[in-house]
TrEMBL record:
Pfam family membership, one: Cu-oxidase_3
Gene Ontology MF terms in the entry: copper ion binding; ferroxidase activity
Transmembrane portions of the chain: 564-586
GO biological process, one term: reductive iron assimilation
Upper lineage: Eukaryota, Fungi, Dikarya, Ascomycota, Saccharomycotina
Ranges where the Plastocyanin-like domain occurs: 29-144, 159-303, 367-506
Cofactor(s) the record lists: Cu cation
Name of the protein in question: Iron transport multicopper oxidase FET3
UniProt signal peptide: 1-19
Sorted UniProt keywords: Copper, Ion transport, Iron, Iron transport, Membrane, Metal-binding, Oxidoreductase, Signal, Transmembrane, Transmembrane helix, Transport
A single GO cellular-component term on record: high-affinity iron permease complex
Domain of life: Eukaryota
PANTHER family membership: IRON TRANSPORT MULTICOPPER OXIDASE FET3, MULTI-COPPER OXIDASE
Species whose genome carries this gene: Cyberlindnera jadinii (strain ATCC 18201 / CBS 1600 / BCRC 20928 / JCM 3617 / NBRC 0987 / NRRL Y-1542)
SUPFAM superfamilies the record matches: Cupredoxins
Amino acid sequence: MVSVTSLLLAGALASSALAETHVYNWTAAWGTANLDGYERPVITCNGEFPWPDVIVNKGDRVIVHLNNGFDDRNTSLHFHGLFQHGTNQMDGPEMITQCPVPIGHTMTYNFTAPDQIGSYWYHSHTAGQYMDGMRGVMVISEDNNDYPYKQGIDYNETATLTFMEWYHDTADVLIPDFLNLYNPTGAEPIPNNFLMNNTKNMTWEVEPDTTYLLRLVNIGGFVSYWFFIEGHNMTVVEVDGVPVEKYETDKIYITVAQRYTVLITTKDDTSKNYAIMQLVDDGMLDLIPSGLLLNTTHTMSYSSDNAEVEEYYVDCLDDDCYLDDMKLVPYDKVELYDDPDHVITISVIMDNLKNGVNYAFFNNITYTAPKTPTLLTVLAAGDLASNELVYGTNTHTIVLQKDEIVDIVLNNEDTGKHPFHLHGHVFQLIDRGAAVDDDDPFVHFDYDNHTEFAEYPMMRDTVYVRPQSNIVMRFKADNPGVWMFHCHIEWHLVQGLALVLVEAPEEIQNNSAQQLTQQHIDNCEANGINVKSNAAGNTENFLDLTGQNVQHGDIPDGFTGKGIVAMVFSCIAAILGLITIAVYGLMDIKNLEVEVAQDLGVVEDLQNTEDVVVEETSSKQSSAEGKY
Ligand SMILES: *[C@@H]1O[C@H](CO)[C@@H](O)[C@H](O)[C@H]1NC(C)=O
Ligand SMILES: *[C@@H]1O[C@H](CO)[C@@H](O)[C@H](O)[C@H]1NC(C)=O
Ligand SMILES: *[C@@H]1O[C@H](CO)[C@@H](O)[C@H](O)[C@H]1NC(C)=O
Ligand SMILES: *[C@@H]1O[C@H](CO)[C@@H](O)[C@H](O)[C@H]1NC(C)=O
Ligand SMILES: *[C@@H]1O[C@H](CO)[C@@H](O)[C@H](O)[C@H]1NC(C)=O
Ligand SMILES: *[C@@H]1O[C@H](CO)[C@@H](O)[C@H](O)[C@H]1NC(C)=O
Ligand SMILES: *[C@@H]1O[C@H](CO)[C@@H](O)[C@H](O)[C@H]1NC(C)=O
Ligand SMILES: *[C@@H]1O[C@H](CO)[C@@H](O)[C@H](O)[C@H]1NC(C)=O
Ligand SMILES: *[C@@H]1O[C@H](CO)[C@@H](O)[C@H](O)[C@H]1NC(C)=O
Ligand SMILES: *[C@@H]1O[C@H](CO)[C@@H](O)[C@H](O)[C@H]1NC(C)=O
Ligand SMILES: *[C@@H]1O[C@H](CO)[C@@H](O)[C@H](O)[C@H]1NC(C)=O
Ligand SMILES: [Cu+2]
């Protein structure tokens, strides 16, 4: 699929490496695949599955023609972890930096990554599509001498392993059941299997006495794993494209979207094969159906003549028994940035709105897509681009000044773990609180009471926060563009756990390289989307938000929590037989009322709910049409 169309001479003063242009012509469409004994529809690339690895050198140009070959849906493509300096319009998330690519249309992603080396990946940024397989690995190689760890000196060979959960149903089946009145606690769909390299039983053939640079990439959309190999330690050398000082460990915890690159040296004796273990963090699952294999055993094979490997057990998976990424030191020793100019404090909660569906919120806002992509509004808004209002009140858009130091203080009031990702940047993770038990009150970050920040904090693009606890991410707003910040659990993103940063809007407007291509405009027009408008699609008065998309109304004050519970239960009684256990999660139905009542904040005795009449009192907000 790769064709090298041209060679360009890089005119850099310091190096005269040859920069290549890699052109990919990809058509996304439905096909089928059988990864775990069960054939199901998957999203294919030019009729093939899985999607190809993109392997380029630093400074190379990447051109991907993404053709929408579906007959029923839009699509998009995001290159995860790439800064897209000066090419924000190529970042990919629909309704943020571009219009969705309509059926039969093409979007050409055209960018370079002159300042990045390491492990990345790409995936659709249209709801649910990467869960159906529209994703792959991207590697920016270290052949030139800019990477601190070198082939022939630090290692001999490279290898890549990918992690993903796998469902037997498509996202089209899972999402409507998940975002549903009948799933009032927001229990996430339970995967059918946990795979490595798209298989339940992966074999990695190794040579003896060889050091591998091994890339671990979690291209899944939900669960984290512990990863370890029987009898072999690993030395971490890079996280999320950031080289780090060597750090030895025996177990790695990897969330979705994270990458770890490790050195691993094989034994000189080929008489035994070893187990490669992939253990699900089962605390993230609301239900563990009997028969669900939580520990998957794969093979590190020195010889196919050796006996089959057996599951390898470890004693401890507690927080102090695996790599703490906060201990990593970036190889470049970037110092802790100065105190922040701008602090963004956000609380994460999951709660129900008036339609009974469980959503995810940052500060009471569940991200609701605008009618015009935010970048397009920036480019059209003139002097008003620094006024947050033009981006709408339900996109949770925050304007940043060029080069200011920003802290995102994220207080997780939810009882689950979440991996958060910021587009266009790596940030310093300067604090991460310990986990807090479900029964204890959540702990907010406090600038006057925290562990000392590291001198050279770990930097990466995806970090997890523990239940009911907090994290603080610090970065410099040195990349003008529109960047999404969101939970990388795809189910939580469709629940609205996202916000948008508009970084240095005047500079975005002034950068002649950062303009829309004719295709951007054509794709918008084919979708009936106004190119030059505010979040509400208004082209005249950018401060007029009439008609903007907003979230469903809050549960009105007074009775309504109970009302919804009552309504849910009368309906549940009627449809009990139809509920799929995968959606319901751990709850057994007789305890469901209590769970829902807690979620809704209703403490009254549920015996009385029969008396409650569900009625729509005048709502504060009009109902939403723009939610995914
Ligand atoms: C991509 O491939 C399709 C199908 O072969 C072809 O019709 C199209 O012209 C190609 N596009 C580009 C930009 O090469
Ligand atoms: C594609 O996106 C546009 C704009 O959001 C929307 O109006 C249209 O319904 C979508 N098309 C499909 C097939 O989902
Ligand atoms: C890609 O971008 C470069 C730089 O802007 C431009 O010269 C080139 O024509 C573009 N190629 C395509 C296929 O869009
Ligand atoms: C691996 O690289 C080291 C260091 O360059 C070298 O000494 C060793 O011979 C290499 N091993 C193999 C199997 O190529
Ligand atoms: C896993 O794969 C190996 C090597 O292909 C094979 O010998 C073994 O039987 C398989 N194990 C299972 C449980 O499928
Ligand atoms: C695993 O998948 C990656 C990504 O597609 C690929 O590069 C690699 O060669 C595969 N490794 C093995 C051992 O199959
Ligand atoms: C492997 O790493 C662990 C944890 O860092 C360490 O305690 C152990 O000594 C190492 N084992 C070997 C054989 O080096
Ligand atoms: C999964 O692995 C852990 C750690 O080795 C072990 O404690 C647990 O018993 C395993 N579970 C099963 C079902 O084998
Ligand atoms: C969220 O809403 C609650 C209840 O209306 C209110 O008390 C709280 O201050 C709001 N939080 C934020 C951050 O706006
Ligand atoms: C400081 O934080 C620690 C850990 O969260 C907590 O136990 C302690 O009570 C806090 N102290 C004050 C003065 O808030
Ligand atoms: C953008 O360009 C205009 C006109 O050239 C200039 O007046 C303005 O200072 C520039 N703004 C920034 C932030 O570069
Ligand atoms: Cu999440």
